[in-house]
Amino acid sequence: MKTFVCIKQVPDTETKIQIKGDKSGIEEGSIKWVMNPYDEFAVEEALKLKTTTSDTVVVLSAGPKSRVVDSLRTALAMGADEAVVIDAPETIDCYLAAKLLAETIKKEGDVRMVFTGKLAIDGNGSSVGQMVAEFLEVPHAGVVSKLDFTEGQVVVERDVEGGAKEVFQLKTPCVISANKGLNTPRYASLPGIMKAKKKPLKELTAADLGLNDLMPKMKFKNFELPPEKPPVKMIEGSPQEQAHKLVDLLMNEAKVL
Amino acid sequence: MSQVFVFLEGKDGTLKKGSVELLTWAKTNGLETSAGAIGADAAGLAKQAGAFGAKVAFASTPSAEGYNPEVYVSLLKEMISASGAQIVLANASALAKDAFPRVAARMDSSVASDCTGLKMDGGKLIALKPLYSGKCTAEVEFESGLNIVLMRSNQLPVMDADGSEADVKTIDAPQASGNVTLEKTVQGASNKPDLTEANVIISGGRGMGEAKNFEILEDLAGTLGATVGASRAVVDAGWVPHGMQVGQTGKTVSPSLYIACGISGAIQHMAGMSGSKVIVAINKDADAPIFQKASYGIVGDIFELAGPLKEELSKALN
């Protein structure tokens, strides 16, 4: 059977975001693109599961082909067996991304599990995993930090508010969205990187999947940097004086106490 | 037919502030509103929504307690369809962020999660959404399908309850298929509000020296009614659990007051907390980047400041 991992390529977390002159998006010129950090947990979990199931691990990504292919190579170098890139414009929304990924998974078939990251750190949507599950008509669990697999089912811990955890049992096939804490992702070894070059990387277009309308249902516009904060007010004096002044300012100037 | 559907969430039988924010927004904008609640206290919450302008409120109490994605998604679709609303609002809670994308997919729609602003512009809904964990924002506009927006709490004003009650319509919950089952919920150690909902946060970084010094922050948090957060460095060092991490690979927060203690201010951390209204930075290093984002700064030692600060806070807050 096959275990699928949906991954996305995002700007490195060190990136300083700059907005295009017409506010239609961000300047991409100097960005270093990396695999979405939460997707690394997803890849790792699929590889761990493979030691039990001997599944073929298929990584897939929908987005501008020339860019997303790097993260797929990284996943192959970590140990995934096959990769599929679905060439699509940057402007696709979560609905279209999920649709493209789900249709690809259906086409590949023989699904045991699908892993995704709990969110992509660029669009911050945290929705694609659940939407893929809906299109595949299988159960899902999100923000998962622990997973136990037995034939035909998984038991997962999902992180919710205030440090609480919900424990779910799901029948496979299912979609699991990985949180930090699920595992420690391996690095791609040098032999792994060499081997990855020979592994199959399939290219698909939306048309191959029978999707001809790539009009997003949701658009982002008027990008802005956060408003400049007024300069910091430094508070001097002894610790007693500083504490007194700070509390006074928070009460009477900022009015947040 | 209503124009807006608001998903209600409560705590101890009372509507959460975030739900009241959404109802208030709809009412202030003169939009016909219906609401819906699911769970053991659904009928009570639905009734309360009337005091904030919702005429009709749906309520459903599934037989199994707790969150079942399958049952919730099916009920939400039914409630939204029955309301006839084009605009669907919910808080960006763990539950709503899990269920609504699936509702959206089922109803041929997209969804904007973790938004921080809402407005009507010529009859069209525009939501403000932080991207790149708050390094920038963009306006979200819906081209087709439902306009589903999940809003962070503490972003919108709330009105006073006006004493009305909503017309509650009860909906029978579907039977769960057994494909996904909630086995149990393990409560967290703290009963404080989650970082994403907290109005006051006090966070510690490497400058706290070691894990046990977070007790100092817990103590101050007790006085302040705050939730304790942390930087990535101390989470990776194993001092505190990942649930406490604020930043690009942790939680994005938007409290009224954020106090950063011994946090230098890496770009990833600042992305997660820059939505805070007022930021206080306490750090021994006068050159720490955190001071550039702060409203108030103290160059000093948290260990020396904690005592006097607690004293002053107790005086001020009593």
Write the layout of secondary structure elements.
The complex is a heterodimer of chains A (257) and B (318).
Chain A: E1 2-6, E2 9-11, E3 33-35, H1 37-53, E4 56-63, H2 65-78, E5 82-87, H3 94-108, E6 111-117, H4 128-136, E7 140-150, E8 153-159, E9 165-171, E10 174-178, H5 190-196, E11 201-205, E12 218-224, E13 233-234, H6 239-253
Parallel strand pairs in A: 1-4, 1-6, 4-5, 5-11, 6-10, 7-10
Antiparallel strand pairs in A: 2-3, 7-8, 8-9
Helix pairs in contact in A: 2-5, 3-4
Chain B: E1 4-7, E2 10-11, E3 14-15, H1 17-28, E4 33-38, H2 42-49, E5 54-60, H3 69-83, E6 87-91, H4 94-106, E7 110-115, E8 117-121, E9 124-131, E10 136-142, E11 147-151, E12 167-170, E13 180-186, E14 200-204, H5 214-224, E15 227-230, H6 232-236, E16 257-261, H7 267-273, E17 278-283, H8 290-293, E18 296-299, H9 302-317
Parallel strand pairs in B: 1-4, 1-6, 4-5, 5-12, 6-11, 7-11, 14-15, 14-16, 16-17, 17-18
Antiparallel strand pairs in B: 2-3, 8-9, 9-10
